[in-house]
Amino acid sequence: MAIIKVIVAFTGICLAFYFYSGTDVFEDDMLKGKKVIVTGASSGIGEQMAYHVARMGSHVLVTARTVDKLEKVVAQCKQLGAASVHYIAGNMNNMTFAKQVVHEAEKIFGGLDMLILNHIGWTYFNYFDGNVDHIRDLLEINVLSYATMTVAALPMLKKSNGNIVVVSSIAGKVPSPLSVPYSTTKFALDGFFSSLRIEFVQQKIDVSITLCVISYIDTDSAVKSVSGVITQPPAPKKECALEIIKGGALRKREVYYLYRAAKIPLLIRDWAPEFLEYLTLKNYDVKNLPKKE
Q1: pLDDT higher than 80, residue 112
Q2: Strand stretches in the chain, DSSP E
Q3: How does it sit in the membrane (predicted)?
């Protein structure tokens, strides 16, 4: 009980410092007229981010695999007041397509202010099945396409002193059961973009990188995958999307949402990893895992 009290007290101090130290104020007009790419924008958090930047008056290019869904997102973005909105459909396991998205933005907009990387490939939520080829394929979509788009967009972002926003996960900071392939790719994102950020500082490159560490969110795909197994309730995708946009516009190093679910485990991890493992496992009901065929 003593260690729990210490952890709770320490967490409270850190929370108080976090909220006290936040001096930047976000205003919607920060993104008015800005040129923005949103990937994985046909549903979930990506769709909501597209709606937020559209409402703020940005020029928006959305991308995902499904044309029909993208057309619906484009129509809604127009209604919300986007300065302009376009889409390009394709699969991010193809690095040529990943570059094409950036080149399309350059052709349409003549530049770029914010690159929001949010797409993910499909994976299972269950015990690791030993399939290393699946991890390799997932790394292509979840990591290498992010790096490819970043490299392609960097000349434009340097000119605009722009922002790179990377949607990651608590599973990319804290070991998580039942998500070995997914967690592998999210840890890789942290390594790539956090290292790239510090190189930008060394080289005096004024392009911000915001890594977004999100918890369980009520997207259709997440709820369908983990329903009945993860016992905590999901957080709302619309609010999550807005916090990501704010963090990118304010050039924050990292965004945590929900804060208590995403940041506090990191504080515990560094001080009491065995206790964090205990808390993590308490949050899973593996009796409800589907049987793998």
Answers
A1: yes
A2: 35-39, 59-64, 84-89, 114-117, 163-167, 208-214, 254-257
A3: Single-pass type II membrane protein
